[in-house]
Design a protein that fits this description.
Distance between the termini: 30 Å
Oligomer: single chain
CATH architecture: Alpha-Beta Barrel
Strand order of the largest sheet: 3-4-6-10-11-12-13-14
Largest sheet: 8 strands, parallel, barrel
Order of helices and strands: EEEHEEHEEEEHEHHHEHEHHEHEHH
Strand content: 5-15%
CATH topology: TIM Barrel
Structural class: alpha/beta
Length: 353
Amino acid sequence: MAEYKYLFSPIKLGPVILKNRIVCAGHTNGFQDPVTFLSNERTLRYFEEKARGGASLIVLPLSSVDETSDYFPLTAFGLWTDDVIPGIKEIVDVVHSNDCKIFGAPGHPGVHSGCDVTLDSVPRDASQLPTVEQPFVISKEMSREEIGEIEDKFVVASLRLVKAGVDGIELLLGHGKLLWNFISRVTNKRIDEYGGSLENRCRFAMEIIDKIRQAIGKDTALGVRLLAFELEPDGITVDESAEIAQMLEATGNLDYMGLVLSSFRSVHIEGAPYYANFEPGWSGEYSRKIKAAVELPVSVAGRINDPGIADKMIADGQCDFVYLCRTVIADPHFARKALEGREEDICPCITCN
């Protein structure tokens, strides 16, 4: 039986104590109703099984705060309506009953939006640019008024999640979604106070973080998942991400920081199976530098498909806890089997996508 010195020790994320260092990362499963964007029985049972599997925390799918911009066909929760609260509360209750915490993830797809491609219904983004995600669409640059409107929608959506009973709120600053496209110089060509310098490009995200913290108080955890390396020409480097991490930490609003790698434009590098020959745990060398730059607990994701690798990454100072996505799709009981010494029973993620 393997011994894990770190993986099954508790960790504190602000007001939330996790029983171990294994987190089921937020990911779109498409199980929510594609018309109402509400939870259903399949959604509930999916998260119940995840909670039974022994992880300490489940993060719900990134879900739009804006009724005009959804993630269809990868349907998530419609956080723009109070109708979503009962279904999420049901999920929260079943997750809590299995000794697991749960965070909500309000977001905005930006150019990833599934809105109709008409003159008055195009994706809104940091700048008016042709998009890789939708090659026949030129996104609409958001006005200052629209920026304020979306910031307020993030706050209201977060309060809906808190009303449903979640233990924390997690914001995604990465993967080519709206908040990241303001931060990236590849997608932000603005000449106002939301463009230009790194500080200006981070302004939109920082304002949202500040408003959410003021609204939810200190009893609910608040964290971000930050893109550690954009992996594309003229993209954000690891050094710049470390600088962003320090700026975010300095606000005093965050309880933890998760890291992701690549944007939609560079998914051919990060996403398996294209580069499935990357060593398991390869992402840890990117997180090490950002972890060294901040005091907040730091997590990372990226082909962590073995409990021994996860424990070693923590021991080596690459991260404080790990986010698992496809690993716990392949086997939602990954954590429980490792804890019980049944590693040979784990159904491994083979990185086939």
